Amino acid sequence: MSVFIQSTLQGFKGAIKAFQRFPASIASALGFAIVTMIRIQLDWPEQEPYNFLFNCLHWSFALGAVFSLAVITGAYTRYNHKKSFLTANLLGAAAVVVTFLVLYFFGGTYPSLEKSSFATISSLAEARVSVAILLSLIAFIYLAGYPKEQSDFARSFFMTLKAYFIALIYGLVIMAGTAGVAGAIEALLYEGMSEKVYMYLGTLSGFVAFTIFVGYFPDFRRGYMDSHREVAQKQPRFIQVLFEYILVPIVLALTIVLLLWAGRTILSGMEASFLRLYGIATAYTIGGILLHIIITHSESGLARFYRRVYPLAALVILAFEAWAFVIQLEKSGLKTTEYFFIVIWIIALISAILLLIRKHDAHPTIALLTCVMAVLAVFPLVGYQALPVSAQVNRLENLLIDQGVLDNNQLIPAVTPPELAVRESITDAVTYLAYAENAKLPAWFDKRLAESSTFKTKLGFEQTWPEFEGPNGNTHSLVTILQLTPQGIDIGDYRWALNLQDYEYQKEQSSATLNGAQGTYHINWTRDPKTNMPTLRIELNDRVILEQTMDDYIKRISASYPPNDGRPAQVGLQDMSLQFDTPEVTVLLVFNRIEMNLDPQADRIFYGFDLSSLYMKEK
After folding, report:
1. How far apart are CA 524 and CA 546, in angstroms?
2. ∠ Cα 76 79 81 (to 5°)
3. pLDDT per residue over 288-322, tens digit each?
4. Which residues contact 39 (CB under 8 A, 6 or more apart)?
5. Is the pTM of this model over 0.70?
6. Around Cβ 284, how many Cβ atoms within 10 Å?
7. Coil, strand or helix: which one is 26?
8. pLDDT digit string, tens, across residues 10-34
9. Radius of gyration, CA atoms only, the chain
């Protein structure tokens, strides 16, 4: 028990030391927590105008916390004097300020299709800050592995991983304990306590967990031998068992599966879904390299066998993954998924070669390679947004020119529809480009081509989607998404307009009450908890005058719009509205969006109704 108490107290002592050793990092984390609590305090309608500001602050403080950790560690391990320590902290503060200014003035974008009119941070700006955080974290791990007499990259990486999970456990325990106390207060003393109290506790628990994470690291000062470094870098016995005797066999089993897939591909050709292959390849590459780093110093037979086999097996598997990539490229061109696939493939290929040649000495070089590829992925012209857009523009232009639909940068509607495969390829490229954020598109391309009506008018044929590839390679069309085309609505002599939309975080029933010439009306819009199918119920003076589900309506529109692979279809008001007549009232429902999703394996169908308004008039 005394050992447990001593270990617990050591964690909190380390958190206190973190304020002294890494003040800029802790200050950034504190700023992050303060911004979070301000957002908790402000409800959404009040917060929306400041949402962009808060997001900029959050990203800036997040980068500042990790960047400060890296530069201060570099100052400790390379110089270790007050001037370098002060400079490192000032650099951390400057990183926060510069990041905020760049995001606020250059990282915003105004959404064109969403309802909000306020600026948001572009996904590319967020990706670039995320890459900066990743680079800072890798730099910290590298710098914390110095001097070589006491550490190396593998030991430093495990120490960081260990600190993270220790801090996570502390944070979860603190959160659970404080939330339990707050729950008791709410149940026994103050039933009207706001749920925001739990959000505040979660935020503070997260901040304390970060201080414990930073405080767990040893004293990195140059020329100082901290006995805690050996403890922090040591792998406990249960960790050794977990990685060497559980994770290593699992990864080796996955290696065998992938090698068998390679052999099957030689005999019967490429049959695997590219998206599934992308997920498996990503997990195998990242997981395999990280596992190699963690078990670098293990002397067990399984660990030594894995370190020898993994690079060789990876090279064989990567060759067949390249084959799958080429086939996918011929099929749909370079898009975001294919882009990240090739980035990961390049990292995996060079890493496997380096591991074969340099063994564990390759780890810092692999980390540097990861940093370079991450930077290139968010770079102009060759980044994940720019390069796929350029590739898809070239693909679409070639398709349209071949069909005579594009001439001298002018769209000419096709006289006769192209072949099915061509229509599918054109629809695929158009959809990708129409929804690409901040893309540099040619003058002839209209983003409204994503709408089915505009597509048919300008290209001369209907949008055509390929069949959806199901879980087992079977083709099933399971999803229908309909969106109301932007237009004016003539509401005639309807007297009332009601908003009854029930969002997921609300109850399963929304209701409204109004007084008319015939009495008091109670309108209820309820959802089935299993299928989400809504039912409209109207009572007049406590007498039910209308109770109707949307079943018949769904059957009607399903016949007109069969399922596809989930791409939205733009639909007119006639199909996105529904009218009911009773002797007492006339009711008109107008929907913004309708979704129907069938899961054949679970034998379940799910509906999503975004009800824009309910219009009603008395007779």
Report:
1. 10
2. 80
3. 999 999 999 998 889 999 999 999 999 988 988 88
4. 47, 54
5. yes
6. 23
7. helix
8. 556 767 888 899 999 999 999 999 9
9. 30
